[in-house]
Amino acid sequence: MLEIACFEMTSAETALRSMADRIEFCTDLELGGTTPDFYEFLHLKRTFSKPVYVMIRPKGGPFYYSETEFIEMKKSIISFGEAGADGFVFGILTPQNEVDVQRNAELITLAAGIPCTFHRAVDRTADLDKSVETLIGLGFKTVLTSGGKKSAMEGKENLKQLIGKYSNQIEILIGGGVRSENVAEIKEFTGATSFHSSAILKYDTLASAAEIKDIKKLIS
């Protein structure tokens, strides 16, 4: 399974026309992704049939939020859900960088059965195993992770362990610098079956259809 992170419309349209299985739609590449424009999302849903997962993140920076920001997240879940979102991508931590059980549970309840992915906020937590077990208990369908390191290549030992322990309970989606030049090695080492990439080549800002094709062939 290949998910492409798309930070603007051109990349989203490229990915949805490509061999990708689904996209994660967001904005603000420089912030690591925030909640996208609602009307751009509607355009994608009306034009393409592939799944569009929506990032729910009101700001960049740390993954804990004020009450006002949390209310904004809840409103976004309801709005995008009613408009046909195929999945949600979010992750709320406490100020101590632990999974915020109560707030994440509230968002999962509001998602009303739409699959939820806990994003790379999990890599900020001190104990990955404990965090993944918490996410399973909360009902997350997927966790996006680089194994607690800056990149999937650096975190491949941890990723292998997570997949061995938990892949029958939650989808372990590997992200963090995943590209055609390293995805085969990551796949072979970890045993992973799900990958996440922006497919943006060096010195570029948009997803590359050729790169998406290459990654998909290498993981198939």
Description:
With 220 residues, the protein is of the alpha/beta class. The protein has a single domain, classed as TIM Barrel. 39% of the residues lie in helices and 15% in strands. It contains eight helices and eight strands. It has helices at 9-16, 38-47, 67-82, 101-111, 128-138, 156-166, 183-190, 209-219, and strands spanning 2-6, 22-25, 52-55, 87-90, 116-118, 142-145, 171-174, 194-197. It has an eight-stranded parallel beta barrel, surrounded by six helices. α4 (101-111) links the parallel β4 (87-90) and β5 (116-118). α3 (67-82) packs parallel to α4. The longest helix has 16 residues, at 67-82. The radius of gyration is 16 Å and the shape is globular. The relative contact order is 0.15.
Keywords:
alpha/beta; single chain; 220 residues; cytoplasm; CutC-like; TIM Barrel; eight-stranded parallel beta barrel; 8 helices; 8 strands
List the helices and strands and how they pair.
Elements: E1 2-6, H1 9-16, E2 22-25, H2 38-47, E3 52-55, H3 67-82, E4 87-90, H4 101-111, E5 116-118, H5 128-138, E6 142-145, H6 156-166, E7 171-174, H7 183-190, E8 194-197, H8 209-219
Parallel strand pairs: 1-2, 1-8, 2-3, 3-4, 4-5, 5-6, 6-7, 7-8
